[in-house]
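Below sits the subject:
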Amino acid sequence: MKKFRMDHRNARKIMWVFYGAGFLLLLLGMIGPQAMILTAVGVALILVGGVIVLLFWRCPHCGMGLPTREGNIQYCPHCGGKL
C-alpha cells in the first residue's frame, strides 16, 4: 500500500474537496432548519481548504508558493523545477 504524502498535487485535491463540501453546506444552510450551524461549518470547511493551499501549494524544489490561478502547471515559475 502506498503511503499518503502531502504535496502540492494532494493539497489541491484536498482543497477542492473542502471547498465543495463547504459550499454544499452553505447552500443547505440557506434552506435547512439549522441554518446557523450548517453555515458556520460550511465557512469553516472553506477556510480549512484555504489554509491547506496556503501551507502546501508550494514548489517541492525551492519552497516558493505556486500560482493559484494556473490549473495545470508543469514547471515552477521561480526555480524552473519540474512539478
